Amino acid sequence: MSDANNDKFLDLFPGWLRTLGEDALEMSKVLEGVESEDGRAFCISGLNYIFKSLDLIPDGIDDLGYLDDAFVFRVAADLAKKEGGATGALVDRLSADCEPLREFLKGDYERLESYVRTLRRGAARGRTVDDVLQDSGTRAAFLGEVVEWSRDYQVPSFTRDARTLIKLRSFLSAKLP
Question: pTM surpassing 0.85?
C-alpha cells in the first residue's frame, strides 16, 4: 500500500476513535426512530458489540483495541441504512465511512460485513439483540449502559505509523470468520 494511502488511513482512524463514544450515544438515540425491525437490529448489534468481552481485537491492545468496535459500528450503520431503512445524519456519516473501510480492508471487508450480520445471534453481557428488541426493560437497561459507556469512554492512543496498519490488517485477517 502506498504512503499516500497509509497517510489517509493514519489520519482517518484516530478520528473514528475520537468519536466512538459520541457515535454510540447518538446511535442509541437514533435507534428509537428506526421503524423496521431489521434496521433496529443492526443498530443494536453495533451497540451491543462494544460490550462483547471477546471481540475481534481485545480492547486493551494499544492503538488497535477499539478500532474493531469503530469498524463494526460503521458496518452495522451501513446495513441498518441499506437493509433496514435507518436514516439521519449519523447513519449517513457512518455508512459513508464504509467506503474507505472497504478500501483499507480490501477482500476482508466482505468477511467483516458477514461477521456483523451474525452479531444478531450472539450475546453480550447475557443479552441478545432480540432480547433488546423485544423487552422494554432490557432495552432501557441496555440504553442506560450505552450512555454510561459513552460517558466513561477514554479515547485510546493511536500511533501514526504504517506498522499500526499492518498489525490492524493482520489481526482482522486472522480473526474474521
Answer: yes
